[in-house]
Amino acid sequence: MNPILVQSHVARDFLQGSAYFNSVPKVVWEYVSNSLDNPRGNQPVHCRVHIGSNRIVIQDDARGMSREDLARFFTMHAENADRAAGRMVRGRFGTGKSAAFGLGILLRVMSTKDGQRNALELRREDVVAASDGQPFKVRDLIVDERTDEPSGTTIEVEGVTTKAADVMATKQYVERRLGRYRGAHSVVVNNHVAEFEEPPFVDERTFTCPEGPLAAGSDKVTLTLRVSPTPLDESTNGVDILSRGIYHETTLAGRDRAEMHEYLFGFVDIPALEDDAGPIPAFDNTRSGRLNPANSLVAEAYSWVGICLEQVRASLVERERERKRSAEAQRLSREGEEIAKLLNQDFDQWREEFKRATGRLGRDLGNVVGVGQEDGEILPGEGTRTSPFVMTGPKPGDGNRGEGPGRDGTEERPGGGLASGEGTGSPAGGDGERPRRRAGGFAIEYEGATPSEARSRYDEERRTIFINLDHPQIAAAKREGIDSRGFRQLSYEVAFSEYSLALPMEMARAQGAIFDAQDAIVEARLTLDRISRLGVAIYNTPAHPADS
After folding, report:
1. What domains can be seen in the chain, in order of their start residue?
2. Which of 114, 453, 461, 539 could form a disulfide with 449 if both were Cys (CB 3.0 to 4.6 A apart)?
């Protein structure tokens, strides 16, 4: 009797693995990280990436691959030789060689090692043709050719349709991940040197994990949490979770909608995740950038990281509320309201002109007005904007069965109404707090964002302009007093400049398209001239007397 064997359809397995690499940044980083994992001794790896209109090239000066190495490279789910030798590298599942076919139709590998050069080529048509499920050949181009070239590998991916946006996204993707990599490696993407700059921070706290599943024996696990002076973008917001130096995920452990979560970042290395041999793996082969929450150690890590994040976040929220209660903060708030009043006077007129020009208010510019609704309030529904209300049902009873006779069904039951609340749900682990996009107009707020940050920034989601009190120019004016004419005039000038840049963004958002660059420049210039004429009165107004 022939035994029943578990078998795999190699071609389908190969193409299924490639499906996880569904963007140019993911494809590029897969091969770049392979290069960084294979240095020559302790020398840093230098890697150059070129992204063309239909071709991607990744070239390195790493240790290269022999023909035997290339055979292992093209073996699906092969054991990583470095891992087998006890060296910690990113590769784990042996699926990365299929990355090219997530977007392309041809993969060419040219590699030199110890004076011998090899080149191979694999085409999508060859993979698809292996319909019987058996292994398929890689085409030999060069076999063990003697050469004086230094060791290194060149990867070419052809048949990829790329855009300018892909190049920019790849630069950012590589820079962020390079910042989590050990060593002095360098990567150049289309002549741009990828350099990761860690966000500045104004506070730092460390937490030591108590001995247990995450920190057993000699493995000391320390979480470092930092507070940024300004909100972080998604790529830097959260805690980087590593295991023995290998990066796996950035997480906020369920606090991603909590108040002031966007100011927190940090890192922790948990060796136990790499060593775990339990039935449910902590990692997967999808390159999802996420750990597996079904794994008990991962669940434990999320819980501990979440508790630490909440401690820092709660103290940050309380500190911010105390700051806003100060006399200086209240005077700055009133100044911001005065500037916003002027900006919104212009914004209202601009919206009316936009309405006449387009025949509509646009997706995110107009106010939705209904019966019994204040101008600017947004009702819950199927739109894309968050409402400060939720629909309610009939008023509940007291839980007791009524004693009277039942009704005949002809009387309409009281309908629902509106109540304060979120228009969208909140994920588990969060407290539901998050900033909402302003319906009525712009707001101006002051913040301390360190001297190295820009004078101002625009939060498009909240339609709020933030003025950086720590910027050297603004700090110098502030030393004269926040009620001085110099400080007030500079505040207006900064707000006017940021507003003139924000309006093209608002128009592009409303139209659901990106402006032509020239149109955006013209719109910004017209706005700055128009709003500065409205604000001329501030230069003729005496300084406010200081509050007593």
Report:
1. 10-193 (3.30.565.10), 203-323 (3.30.230), 327-386+417-540 (no CATH)
2. 453
